[in-house]
């Protein structure tokens, strides 16, 4: 494959050990020119060592985004075949205890940056009639307690991708949403250990809630990141890609419930998964003891 015919993919958030890292390696194996980005280039040095292009990109910094666009224009001659919006941030906290400033920062990364990066690279994508791929989550479908703001940010990704698909279609650019299930990554390791505030209304049940906030037990249902990457890359490289791809641990049951269930089905399923009845008992017992 010559440089002139070699397709180029840019991936945001490719720090070692994450989904972006696995995607970068898989696209590279498939023969694409991969531009792996991260805020800190030290975290993508391993990809550079493998022969991938690496680029500093902070997705919430307009100057960094514009600099990245200029660099890609120079590298590719003004085209970009695939943009993977993978950068993401998390926030585990009960909504009653949440802090709006932290939630806003997360939305900046998960939601607003996704559009800002796509806008900036749109001329290059239009030039190649390329594809935008946004990494969503089952958290945008199922209302996970103690992570409501994160859930909402991923629900926004789902909807924005559908809107992008329609709005970009006049230019021959496609938009694909990946509804990612549970993947074995360092996602929770990269978060500060989530804790309920000392005076939280939920404090009597913190022994149940805090492990859930930290993602305890999810690893068992997780898909290996390289397996996830293989499935995603295979779909993206198809001429007629699946527009809404579900891949990862627990995706089938959530897809099935959301597709065939009634509107409030999660009110039945989620409380059982997260032991809400036990949480309620602990809170009520604490109230009675006052």
Description:
By secondary structure, the chain is an alpha/beta fold. The chain has one domain (8-196, 221-262): 3-Layer(aba) Sandwich (Rossmann fold). The chain is 46% helix and 14% strand. The protein has helices spanning 19-29, 45-49, 62-76, 100-128, 148-168, 206-213, 225-236, 251-260, 266-273, 276-288, and strands at 8-11, 33-38, 53-56, 82-85, 131-137, 174-180, 183-184, 223-224, 244-247. The strands form two sheets. Strands 3-2-1-4-5-6-9 form a seven-stranded parallel beta sheet, with helices on both faces. Helix 3 runs parallel beside helix 4 and helix 4 (100-128) runs parallel beside helix 5. The longest helix has 29 residues, at 100-128. The mean pLDDT is 95.
Percent range of helical residues: 40-55%
Radius of gyration: 20 Å
CATH topology: Rossmann fold
The shape is elongated
Beta content: 5-15%
**SSE run:** EHEHEHEHEHEEHEHEHHH
The number of helical elements comes to 10
Name of the CATH first level: Alpha Beta
- Contiguous uncertain segments of 5+ residues: none
Strand order of the largest sheet: 3-2-1-4-5-6-9
- What is the structural class? alpha/beta
> What is the distance, rounded to the nearest whole angstrom, between the alpha carbons of the first and last residues?
73 Å
The CATH fourth-level homologous superfamily: NAD(P)-binding Rossmann-like Domain
Number of domains: 1
């Amino acid at each position: 494959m010559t440089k002139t015919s070699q397709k180029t993919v840019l991936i945001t958030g490719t720090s070692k050990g994450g989904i972006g890292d696995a995607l970068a390696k898989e696209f590279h194996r498939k023969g694409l020119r991969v531009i792996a980005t991260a805020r800190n280039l030290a975290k993508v040095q391993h990809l550079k060592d493998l022969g991938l292009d690496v680029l500093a990109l902070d997705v919430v910094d307009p100057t960094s985004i514009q600099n990245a666009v200029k660099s890609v224009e120079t590298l590719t001659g003004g085209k970009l075949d695939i943009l993977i919006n993978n950068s993401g941030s998390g926030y585990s906290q009960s909504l009653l205890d949440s802090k709006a400033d932290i939630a806003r920062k997360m939305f900046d990364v998960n939601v607003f940056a996704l559009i800002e990066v796509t806008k900036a690279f749109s001329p290059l994508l239009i030039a190649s009639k390329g594809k935008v791929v946004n990494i969503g989550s089952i958290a945008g479908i199922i209302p996970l307690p103690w992570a409501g703001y994160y859930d909402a940010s991923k629900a926004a990704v789902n909807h924005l991708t559908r809107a992008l698909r329609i709005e970009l279609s006049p230019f021959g650019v496609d938009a694909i949403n990946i509804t990612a299930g549970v993947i074995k990554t360092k996602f929770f390791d990269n978060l500060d250990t989530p804790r309920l505030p000392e005076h939280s209304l939920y404090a009597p049940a913190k022994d149940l809630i805090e492990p859930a906030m930290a993602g305890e037990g999810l690893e068992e249902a997780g898909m290996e990141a390289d397996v996830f990457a293989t499935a995603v890359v295979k779909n993206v490289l198809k001429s007629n890609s699946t527009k809404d791809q579900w891949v990862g641990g627990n995706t089938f049951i959530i897809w099935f419930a959301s597709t065939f269930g009634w509107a409030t089905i999660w009110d039945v399923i989620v409380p059982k998964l997260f032991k809400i009845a036990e949480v309620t008992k602990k809170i009520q017992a604490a109230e009675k003891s006052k």
